[in-house]
Amino acid sequence: MARNKESLVLLIDVGPSIHSVLQDVEDVCSMLVQKKLIFSKSDEVGIVLFGTEDTNNELEKEVGGYEHVAVLRDIRVVDDDAVVVLKNLPRGTFPVLDAIVVGMDMLIKKFGVSDKGKKRLYLITDAQFPTKEPYEGTKEDQVDTISQQMKILGIRLNCLIIREKLSTEHLGAFDENDKLLDQFSRKAMAKTVHVDCATSLLGAIKTRNVVPVTVFRGDLELSSMMKIKVWVYKKTSEEKFPTLKKYSDKAPASDKFATHEVKVDFEYKSSQDPDKVVPPEQRIKGYRYGPQVVPISSAEWEAVKFKPEKGVKLLGFTDASNILRHYYMRDVYIFIPEPGNTKAIIAVSALAKAMKEMNKYAVLRCVWRQGQGNVSVGVLTPNLSSTDNIPDSFYFNILPFAEDVREFQFPSFSSFPSAWQPDQQQQEAADDLVRMLDLAPSDRKEVLQPDYTPNPVLERFYQFLHLKSKAPEIDVPQLDRSLKRIAEPDPDFLSRHNSIVNNFQERFELKENPKKKKLSRRAWREKPSGSNDEKVGVDGEVPKVQSSSLKKSLSSLEVEKIGDLNPVQDFEAMMARRDSSKWITEAIKDMQHYIYHLLENSYEGNSCPKAIECLMALRKGCILEQEPKEFNRFMLDMCEKFRRSDLADFLELLYSKKITLISKSEAADSDLTEEEAKNLPIKVEDSSE
Amino acid sequence: MDLDPEGIFRDDSDSESELYEEKEPTKELAVYLIDASPKMFAPITALENGNKETYFHVAIDCIAQSLKSQIIGRSYDEVALCFFNTKEKKNLQDVNGVYVFNVMERELIDRPSAKLIKEFSSIEDKFMSTIGSRYGVLPGSRENSLYNALWVAQALLRKGSVKTSSKRILIFTNDDDPFGSMTGALKADMIRTTTQRAKDAQDLGISFELLRLSRPDEEFNVSMFYADMIGLEGTDISQFLPSASEKLEDMKDQLRKRIFKKRKVRTLIFSIANGISIQVNTYALIRPTLPGAIMWLDSVTNLPLQTERSFICADTGALIQEPSKLFHPYKNQMVQFSKDQILEVKKVSNSHLRLLGFKPLDCLKDYHNLRPSTFIFPTDEEIIGSTCIFIALYRSMLRLKRFAFAFYGKSSNPRLVALVAQDEIISSSGQVEPPGMHMIYLPYSDDVRHVEELHGTGDAIAPRATDDQIKKASALMRRIDLKDFSVCQFANPALQRHYGILQALALDEDEMPDIKDETLPDEEGLARPGVVRVLEEFKIAVYGENHDQEEADSLSMRGSRSEASRKRKEMAETAERESSRYNWADLAESGQLKDLTVIELKYYLTAHNLPVTGKKEALISRILTHLGK
């Protein structure tokens, strides 16, 4: 593990202009450290803030300058402390951008010039404010000197620049800073990424460093006489949900060294005599062929099985149109020319450029390793590099074999009855929708670019893991707002194109098929909201209400009190909150108070209908959450309280609406039978006379 | 049971188990009704090269082929093979003109076995002598072989419940008018009873498929009789029109494609916006076919073994129930989760498939791929109007060259997906690409690796090809052009071999089949002078004149003077020099080896090419052994 040890210094801008996204910066940085705690425990992390009020760095002490740069944490092995620190970054007040030098100085002081370990600086800023003029030379000179230094020391620099919105007043500084950072990219081992929203901010930083391993190194054989030296890597590879281990609670609590692990043991038993265990050496593999099972020993199988020669061979070129996109079968490989081999770089570049020009793809047959039991046929597509110092390369996708394709036949759309064909107006409405709901408009950055979009499930899991390590009883956290943007359309975006969407909605008619039973009615009527809290408002089917209620639910995200406007919805939202169990009791209590409040301030029963509505919601909620006693006690109290007052009418109303106590059959915790439950209003009526 | 035990179908460590979670929901029972009337034995006149293939042969060939792929891909489906218009009869109902074909150790309707396929493939040779052909419906007789055949087929399909299996009857015939020889009331009566029989079968949930073998001289007219029988109306008939093609290959192709019934994987609700949701079916058109699961057998009896799984507490060794708690190590802690919590973490969306917006097609990069795509086709089954909306969006997307960007909220692995509209492509052999959308699973940032950046050229500008070099490459591309390349033209050699071996073993054949690897490059083609010339030119353009010589030189240089080997050589030399300073035999004799340092001991070992690992005692004993003491 230590072999790939990395020392990382986070340089975080906490200046005033960045405050709006600092929360997300905190999140992504702490996620970075969390993942290190899991996957590379011996990495080291240092944190430097700039734009702070205080100044605290050795350079300032030694040579002066470098104000408002604070070292929050020296470089040392990752620990929980780093996460805590990152979760609570102070908000600074001063705009400066001198942190790179401080970070570099830290790395040099810690490791000296000779150390070969990986060293990285991560600069996170919005680069809104001008850099200070250096004491001598120009800024460009200074950048040159720094990047020279960084190259000698083997320090990599990653810059993450956050641009939510462009404010014209800083444009000059933007340009200048961009130019300077660009210069870094050219001169040093640096990479700059621009992001424009919180979601891509979370995705822009690779929180887990995977050391890439070549799948294949060797010749790409165009023919037996013409070969190109290439290295093949995975370009995409799904990062899986972590495999959790099974937990055994059998070990005594006093045992501090208990592993709590569970071993899974397999035993093979004869089908005739279930008590007889067959030893492993007596087993033989059987392969199915239709209904038959053919026994073959591993040795026999080894002797006859398919054994192709290792090698990557060209089968030919073909028009790109012959290979449709949906035939790509798996995760993607990248073929890069052998590093440092100029001939290979040029050969790959020539092929890639010619392929691009002629719109051709190459078909290859690949056997990556000797002894591999299968071959793959796939398509090589050009990847022309847009960066000067990165050579051209190819992407490689696996194509299906004849056996992998099922040629199902589907009717042509044109053969469908006319009722299924969109008319001209409908088609126009659809055109508008497709044109306007544009996630990659020409004047802005593409929204939700896969390269910058984090996996919401993994993000949520690691957050939960961290929270749970502190408080084992905690519930699964809500999905962050920025993560929610991945699973649901941006409400702002939708409301901006409200008229288009409404037009689309009006043009088409959808109805349930009466012949089919409401098989999945629930599913399509159900308001598809992102997680549990959002039963309120969001995505209501009435578009006009939608935008306003959306904003409301976004600004206050979680309902904490029952308001006067939508008491029932507020109540349901509170009941549905899963971040803590206290909300249920809270909601019930709040609702009870609210009903009393309604009734007590009722003028000639004018708020009775509303109170009934609330009461019905409360009853439903109490059944759902298995709190029948709460409801029953409340009802009895209420009857007791009101039957002598002028609100006795209300109780009659209750009777007519058939609102009863909750019986045992509805909620197991109740100790009333159905009869007893019905009894309540009658009793009240009697006494009120 | 585990899939692919040796991992031969994986080319790296990533497990792919998730891919196969999409199980086919039901099994299929099919009866193939093959017309064996003399008309079927007429040669197909369209063949130019003098080969006389009969319609019967084409039908048998296609069925045998599809059985072969069925035994690989969906071996749980069951089939019965049944001829009608035969001389001999063989059926449980004992009706005339119907012959149910079968082999030993197999029920009449059952999964296909190696033996069945083998015997069926070669049935043509002895068909006339054992089963025989004749016209089933003849004037003056009340015999109705088609009616009989339907009756037998329906009886065969009595097996299995309609809920768990789909049932089909596939009729192969080239006779569009089976009652052509009849006249008058008898004909009307026969048509009526036969149609009624077919309707009864359909009421029992059996569907019909008519695989007609059209004759070049006369079109197969579905509306003569069959449209009525299998209940086609208006628009359906137009879909049923035979294509203009008369080529034998196309006919085979069409038959083959239609033998398999399409199966949907799931029905999804696709939410578009503002609560507009339509319904779509998903189909797995492309999925890797793997060798079937293995079973463990008892090598003595060859009977299957039962696997029993037990959980054992690692701390106490106690046998436990499957635990409900899981944990993940974090900071020297074991953070526990319940299974429900894990489910909740994974649930980030309540909807099936949710539209987020649209993007131009060039935003979908070649590396935006993780797994095989899923095909989407609309359905009006529960939500009327779905198809209309789907088609409207589909046409807009095609015209505007955009794809839909959506979130697929599957509970196990929610993903961002691209929905790419695919225009229908039809060739002479029928539909090549169905109309609909393909759902392409996109990577998250966590899944994308930026390896190319690791191997940049630093501050030097990476070399690029010159125009001349590109021109040479283009010439090469024009020469080595696969004109009619179709994505799935190659059979998987590993799979073919796997099943070839199994088939041979299952039939007790001694010889192992020789499977041709179609994926090897066309060496002959590449050796043609024209191809060699462009390759040579390209090579000179990018590598220079004396590439091979330089390569050979650098190889030999590397051999003798590469950094590591030079170091090694140096070390060996020093070791030899140093080692010769000692009189090892004497030292060993007098037991003074232990007085030397490890470094000194290693001189000897290195000089004599012995391993230098281990503790000092090990080194000494190794030296002593080597000295023969």
Automatic annotation (TrEMBL), chain A:
InterPro entries: DNA_bd_Ku70/Ku80 (IPR006164), Ku80 (IPR024193), Ku_C (IPR005160), Ku_C_sf (IPR036494), Ku_N (IPR005161), Ku_PK_bind (IPR014893), SPOC-like_C_dom_sf (IPR016194), vWFA_dom_sf (IPR036465). GO terms for molecular function: ATP binding; damaged DNA binding; DNA helicase activity; double-stranded DNA binding; hydrolase activity; telomeric DNA binding. Residues 523-542, 675-689 have a biased composition (Basic and acidic residues). CDD domains: KU80 (cd00873). It is found in: Nucleus. This is ATP-dependent DNA helicase 2 subunit KU80. Single-stranded DNA-dependent ATP-dependent helicase. Belongs to the ku80 family. SMART domains: Ku78. Its EC number is 3.6.4.12. Keywords: ATP-binding, DNA damage, DNA recombination, DNA repair, DNA-binding, Helicase, Hydrolase, Nucleotide-binding, Nucleus. GO terms for biological process: DNA recombination; double-strand break repair via nonhomologous end joining; telomere maintenance. It catalyses: ATP + H2O = ADP + phosphate + H(+). Pfam families: Ku (PF02735), Ku_C (PF03730), Ku_N (PF03731), Ku_PK_bind (PF08785). GO terms for cellular component: Ku70:Ku80 complex. Residues 275-416 form the Ku domain. It comes from the Eukaryota. Residues 512-544, 666-689 are annotated as: Disordered.
Automatic annotation (TrEMBL), chain B:
One of its GO terms (molecular function) is damaged DNA binding. Its main location: nucleus. SUPFAM superfamilies: SAP domain (SSF68906), SPOC domain-like (SSF100939), vWA-like (SSF53300). It is an enzyme of class 3 (hydrolase). The keyword Nucleotide-binding applies. Residues 560-575 have a biased composition (Basic and acidic residues). Its EC number is 3.6.4.12. Keywords: ATP-binding, DNA damage, DNA recombination, DNA repair, DNA-binding, Helicase, Hydrolase, Nucleotide-binding, Nucleus. GO terms for cellular component: Ku70:Ku80 complex. One of its GO terms (biological process) is double-strand break repair via nonhomologous end joining. It is found in: Nucleus. Signal peptide: none annotated. Pfam families: Ku (PF02735), Ku_C (PF03730), Ku_N (PF03731), SAP (PF02037). The active site is at 23 (schiff-base intermediate with dna). It comes from the Eukaryota. It catalyses: ATP + H2O = ADP + phosphate + H(+). InterPro entries: DNA_bd_Ku70/Ku80, Ku70, Ku70_bridge/pillars_dom_sf, KU70_core_dom, Ku_C, Ku_N, SAP_dom, SAP_dom_sf. Residues 1-21, 549-575 are annotated as: Disordered. Residues 593-627 form the SAP domain. Belongs to the ku70 family. This is ATP-dependent DNA helicase 2 subunit KU70. The lineage of its organism: Eukaryota, Viridiplantae, Streptophyta, Embryophyta, Tracheophyta.
